[in-house]
Amino acid sequence: MATEETGGFNIHPMDQFVVKPLFGGDELHWYTVTNQTLWLFLTVVVIVLLMVVSVRGRAMVPTRSQSIAEVIYGFVRKMIEDIAGQEGLKYFPYIFTLFMFILVANVIGLLPKSFTTTSHIVVTGVLAMAVFISVTVLGFVKHGLGFLKLFWIGSAPLPLRPVLLIIEVISYFVRPLSHSIRLAGNMMAGHAVIKVFAGFAGAMGLGAIAPIFAIVAVYGLETLVVCIQAYVFTILTCVYLNDALHPGH
Amino acid sequence: MASETGQDGGHYVGMPQLDPEFMATQVFWLVVALVVIYFILAKVAMPRIESIIAERHGAIARDLDQAAELKRRAEEAEVAYQQALTDARAEAQRIAAEAKAEIQKELDAATAKADAEIAAKSAESEGRIAEVRASALESVEIVAKDTAVEIIAAIMPAAADKAAVGKAVTARLKG
C-alpha cells in the first residue's frame, strides 16, 4: 500500500529490507543463502579484522587498530563490572559477542546498498529471546525459587506488594519484546527515512539540495544512533543479568 | 490491489520484516554467525587482548618497582657519599692536628736546645769573666806590691824590704 500513497514519487523505502536468495533458485530451504547471509558473513569478517587481525602484533604500545580493539574490550568489560558486578564477568564472552555483533552489523548496515541485518525483527527477536531465556534460566539455577523474589518487592508496603507483583511480572515478560523492537525499530526507521529523503531528492530536480542536506544530517544522526543502540541493547542485557545474579532489590 | 505483504511490480509492499517466508533461513544463518563470532571472540580475540593488557600492566608495575629500587640505591649512594665526606673531613682534621703536634714538639726541642746552648755559653762566659776578674785582681796585687816597694824604696831605701811590703799589701788588700 506504500506505493499507492506515494503516488508518482516512486519512493520505495522498504525495498532495502527485502530478503532475497543470493544465488536465485525458486525453492526456499531453511539453509538458503540470502543477501542477509552475505551481510552476516561480512559482519563476521569485520569482527575478525577488528578484534583478531588488529591485535596480532601484541604490541606493548598499541597501534591504532589494536587500541580500538582494546578500547572496545575495556568498555564492555567495565560496563558489565559496573552493572552486574564481578560475578557478571563470567558472562563477558556472551555479552561481548552480542555487543560486537550488533555494533558491527549496525555500522556496516549504514553503507549505501547494504542490507542491515539488525533491522529485522526476526534477528533482534532471536537475540532478545536468547538473552531473556538465558537470564531466566540462570536466575533459577543460581537462586532456585528465590529468583521469584524479583517480583515480590520486600521493601514495598505489604498491601502494595500484590499490585507490584502483577506489574513486575508483566514488565518482565515484556522485556524481550521491547528489547528486540527497540533495536529493529531504530534501524528500520532511520534507514527508511534516508530512503524517503532520497526519493524526494530524485523527484525534485534542482530543489533536491534540501533533501540531500537532510540526508546528510539524518545520516550523521544514524551513525550516532546505531552505536547507541548497540550500547543500549548491551547495557539492558547487563541489567537483566544483574537481576538474575542479584534478584533481591 | 496490493496485498498486505508481497511483491508489487518488483517493489515490496508493507514490511519485509514480517514476511514469514524467509524466517527459517534468517534464524539459521543468524545462529551460525553468532556461534562463529562467539568462538572467534571467546577463544581467540579475548584471551589475546586480555594477555596484552595483563602484560602491559605487569610491565608498568615492573618498571615502577625498578624505579623505586633505583631511587633507593641513589639514596644509599648519597648517604655513603655523605659518610665518606664526613670521614675525610675528620681524617683531615686529625692529620692537621698531628702535624701541628709534631711541629710543636720539634719547636719545643729546638727551643730547649737553644736554651741549653745559651745557658752553656753564658756559664762559660761567666767563668771567663771570673777568670779575668781574678787575674785582674792578681795583677792589681802584683802592681800594688811592686808600686809599694818602689815607693818605699824611693822614700826610704833602708826600709825597703820586699817581702815585708808584699805581706803588708796583701794584708791590706784582704782587709
What does this molecule look like?
The complex is a heterodimer of chains A (249) and B (175). Chain A has 249 residues and is mostly helical. Chain A has one domain (2-245). Chain A has helices spanning 2-6, 35-53, 64-88, 92-108, 121-143, 161-203, 209-245. In chain A, helix 3 crosses helix 4 (92-108). The relative contact order of chain A is 0.14. Chain B has one domain. Chain B is built from two helices and two strands, in the order ββαα. Chain B has a two-stranded antiparallel ribbon with strand order 1-2. In chain B, strand 1 and strand 2 (11-13) form a beta hairpin. Residues 1-6 of chain B have low confidence and may be disordered. Chains A and B meet through helix 1, helix 2, helix 3, helix 4 and helix 5 of A and strand 2 and helix 1 of B.
Defining traits:
heterodimer, A: 249 residues, mainly alpha, B: 175 residues, two-stranded antiparallel ribbon, 2 helices, 2 strands, 83% helix, rod-shaped, disordered N terminus
What distance separates the N and C termini of chain A? 48 Å
Oligomer: heterodimer
State the helicity of chain B in percent bands: over 70%
Q: Specify the biggest β-sheet of chain A.
A: none
Explain briefly what this protein structure is.
The complex is a heterodimer of chains A (249) and B (175). Chain A has 249 residues and is an all-alpha fold.
List the helices and strands and how they pair.
The complex is a heterodimer of chains A (249) and B (175).
Chain A: H1 2-6, H2 35-53, H3 64-88, H4 92-108, H5 121-143, H6 161-203, H7 209-245
Helix pairs in contact in A: 2-4, 3-4, 3-7, 4-7, 5-6, 5-7, 6-7
Chain B: E1 6-8, E2 11-13, H1 23-155, H2 162-174
Antiparallel strand pairs in B: 1-2
